[in-house]
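Good morning N.,

You mentioned wanting to compare the apo and holo forms, so I went ahead and generated the holo version with flavin-adenine dinucleotide. This is what I fed in:
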Amino acid sequence: MSDHITLHVARYRPEKASETTFDAFELPCPKEWVVLDGLNHIKDRMDGTLSYRWSCRMGICGSCGMLVNGEPKLACATFLSDYAPGPVRVEPLRNFPVIRDLVVEMGDFMSKLTRIKPWIVRQVEKPLSDGEYRQTPGELDEYKQFSMCINCMLCYSACPIYGLDPHFIGPAAIALAQRYNLDSRDEGAAERMQILSEHDGIWGCTFVGECTKVCPKHVDPAGAIQRYKLQSAVEWVKAFVLPRAAQ
Amino acid sequence: MYARRPIEPLLWLFFSAGGVMAALFFPAILFLFGIAFPLGWLAPPNYDHLLAVVSHPLTRLVLLGVCSLSLFHWAHRFRYTLYDGLQIKHLNESINAICYGGAVLGTLTAAYLLWKVP
Amino acid sequence: MRHNAVYTPYHPRWHRTRVSTYWWLGRWSYFLFILRELSSIFVAWVVIYLLVLVAAVSKSAVRYQQFLDWSRNPFMLSLNILSLLFIVLHAVTWFNLAPQAMVVHVGGRRLPGSLIAISNYAGLVAVSIVILGLLLIRW
Amino acid sequence: MTPAFDVVLVGGGGAGLRAAIALAEASQRLRIAVVSKVYPMRSHTVSAEGGAAGVISPDDSLDEHCYDTISGGDWLGDQDAIEAFVREAPQELLRLEHWGCPWSREADGRVAVRPFGGMRKMRTWFAADKTGFHMLHTLFQTSLKYTTVVRYDEWFVTKFLVDDGRVQGVIALELATGRIEAITARAVIVCTGGCGKVFPFTTNAAIKTGDGMALAYRAGAPLKDMEFVQYHPTGLPFTGILITEAARSEGGYLINKDGYRYLQDYALGTPQPKPVLRTMELGPRDRLSQAFMKELDKGRTTDTPYGPVVFLDLRHLGEQLINRRLPFVRELCMKYQNIDPVKELIPVRPVVHYMMGGVHTDINGATPLPGLYAAGEVACVSINGANRLGSNSLPELLVFGARAGRAAADYVAGAKDPGTTVVAQLQDEQRRLEADLLQQRGRERIADIRQEMQLTVEESAGIYRTGASLIRSAAKLRELQERARDFRIEDDSRTFNTERIAALELSFMLDVAEAIVTSALRREESRGAHQRTDFPLRDDQRYLAHSLVQRQPDGSCRVDYLPVTITRWPPAERVYGEAPSDERSHYVARGAIPSGEGV
Ligand SMILES: Cc1cc2nc3c(=O)[nH]c(=O)nc-3n(C[C@H](O)[C@H](O)[C@H](O)COP(=O)(O)OP(=O)(O)OC[C@H]3O[C@@H](n4cnc5c(N)ncnc54)[C@H](O)[C@@H]3O)c2cc1C
Ligand code: SF4
Ligand code: F3S
Ligand code: FES
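and this is what came out, ligand included:
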């Protein structure tokens, strides 16, 4: 294994150019280094103008999503040495507008997140003095997986449907809607269903399944969406058979 | 339950049911009639035997279900393939008409043909 | 989203890449996805083929023989081999993905996905045996 | 001039979001802004792993939590604040439960608790080992419900607007566009978190650069107890990624290169197979980190390319427990260290983790500067004293975030509108940020100065400190301040210019570093996390007091002292390793490992 590796980093400088170009950097490649260490090395030692997001360096804040050799990855959880001898191509996440270099615009997701009401909806709030809502480990297990989403946007970047139709609410937001639906404390499933059965909701997804494959936290958004469809269909039938009872 | 009751869940239900039917029934049927019999790996059933099988009411019912649902499966999937693969979502209306209309027409044909089996 | 943002000192121009019409050629997994979706065409074809068979059978023994001859023609044969490949692709992807869409609880416990997939295949085997039995065993 | 908002929150971490919700619930008419340099759910609270302390068990009591916190902080904490904190913590955690936080549960559906370092009862609520992640996402998602909260995501606050002796808003820079705006308000709550990045080796995220401390300091608010910096005993070498204390509270051992549980040599009790509260591995963090340094002196640590290490042994816990209770620990070890804790030892070393000090506030989060409030790690209320106990910080965010929010809501009802100098201040700041920082072509690399600063601070204000090295490093920091005027900034773009941000952050960190070193130099005693080899004993006569660093007009800093509030617990010696016999039997009776199946 060589001790150096070349990174081809996508650059986009809106003031200067209207297209993306690539800069090549030759870097040391100790076995502990992740792609993010490489980028930090570039920023500190070689080219201070490179822009990218990062924070926790431990795969939990969700800032550092980018394409590494075309695959959506967390830069802080992707080892450079896995790509030796290189070269490695680093680009901004696909399917998003690029603000600059490796930084993409994700305001779209933020508004979609709000749309699905990601909070506990209840008819009657239990007063604090009555203590906690009881929830067994089994009930917790029902939604736990979907609560693991770090909003890293890798799934949006992997989903071709989102690429084709930016209005599609998309994998993570729907998984988060499921996270609350399946929570034994929540009563908002019907409200969320209303929103998600619109055109840009669950029906846009054709189960490409890439979202689940790239998810670094094993959230399985693809599963969340299909379960939603099934649920919606079951409710449709119920409402058809028993129009009154379903009210 | 909803003010507007969108049709999408129903279409999806048909699509799914059709997917299951096609996955369960078609491998064997196609293998026999499409490959094994023509290539002589297996001897095809003789006419009377086959007629007896097909004319049984249960067979007809199952075949009708399988055919119809599978056609809806095709309609739904094909519609999205056209949207995504060719990026022609703007032709939405005509695509829908062709796909689901085709499935309905196919279902009627199947019903007619199965009805006519002696 | 601001779709038409242009660059002014405080309004950078965002860079957007349009998805190419051939996006599904870019990655093996996307290509596989499109193949899976295209399998629906072959599903439709099998329905047609089946109905032709039914029509033939309901007419006469001669028509049935004609159907069998027709199916031996090389074009039909290759079409059907191709179709079978797609049908198998459809069945495999369908069965493997089903556990993701379906969560089954038995006695308060969630069944593992692999079990659901396995029962799907068991269903396939059962249905296939019934079809084979009906057509090949003389009674 | 009518301000744009009633209250501006700087920071969207746990404290900031809790304060925002408190404000939104206080009145629907309040216009609230949350300004954060990263999207709120990226804030550093997301990294917290182990848990959040709050008394819920019937066999636990508020007084015991108070006592643990006070003795854990070596009697430097203000006892009135601690009492309020301990009283409100369970309610706050419960509120979070009602908002949907996925706390781990007992088999019957109650919230489960786990033991934690320095705590004599099991009272640490947890969501597996991603407690902070779940708390932050719950708070953030719940905050989306309140339409009166306006978010400024990825806006970097560069200055507080001060006029007429009052804080009247902030000046902030939008990263995506480079736009610089004055966000005026009647009150500002600063919730920007800690400053671990002042040190070279830290568990803290890149964003923890002490911005709020420096901003408040520059605006005229004093910084309190800045010499108290917490080292966490178990960080992974190279990355500094934290292996949560929960790993020890679930039963992990700390061993040296000979496989010996060395903590028994440092007045932390005798080793038992199962964890015993307040002894050995469940001692407080300052003592454990100090024990490491002593092992290092004795040559009983193992050398690695990234410094000396000891080992954390989880192997005897078994795969099942590790997967259920410590999945993230396993994930991190496998991902970043390429070892599996089920089968292998985890190399660990002490790592800078938390800032006990911060902006001086009263029990309601108010600073001496009218209109300025602070909450969370950036603030020093103080409940943590000379050493924070693990799992006290997360509930602190909630309790004092909510308190600061309510206090600010009261304050703005009677506050005056901002004055007219706002415009001039904005123009000055625009000039500084644009003309100076975008056009600056000096000689000094940002990364070089940052690194020199970090090494300087580490060397003098590490786990053990001496007067001589603190004096040297104070001089060095002044030199770095000087050199920092001559930055070379290559990036002249306004769009997402992270180099300009790095320069601003470095200047904040230099101020914070100066405050740390200056107050460490002045405190001539050893207490909690502040250990002076030249003054090895605690000196309640002279230093049972909070240090307050205030900026002088000439830019230098002055240290004053403020008495500690003592209510019911007079200073005593900190004793670990001897759980009273009744407690131990209670603990064993309930089972060392809580019975819950909760993940
Ligand atoms: C790895 C790790 C594990 C931990 N585990 C535990 C634990 O188990 N239990 C426990 O009790 N505590 C734990 N802690 C401590 C605890 O997590 C922190 O003290 C706490 O999260 C700090 O929260 P905060 O809201 O004060 O700040 P943060 O969450 O750090 O938020 C700071 C906010 O301020 C914003 N900000 C900063 N500067 C600016 C600026 N200039 N302009 C605009 N916005 C700005 C940031 O964008 C961010 O939104 C842990 C800490 C670490 C590092
Ligand atoms: S679902 Fe997974 S990939 Fe998508 S944003 Fe969440 S964590 Fe990232
Ligand atoms: S990749 Fe996209 S199409 Fe659906 S299954 Fe995932 S959201
Ligand atoms: S830096 Fe936080 S996820 Fe990578």
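Chain B touches chain C through 54 residues (CB under 8 Å).

Happy to go through it together on a call whenever suits you.

Best,
F.
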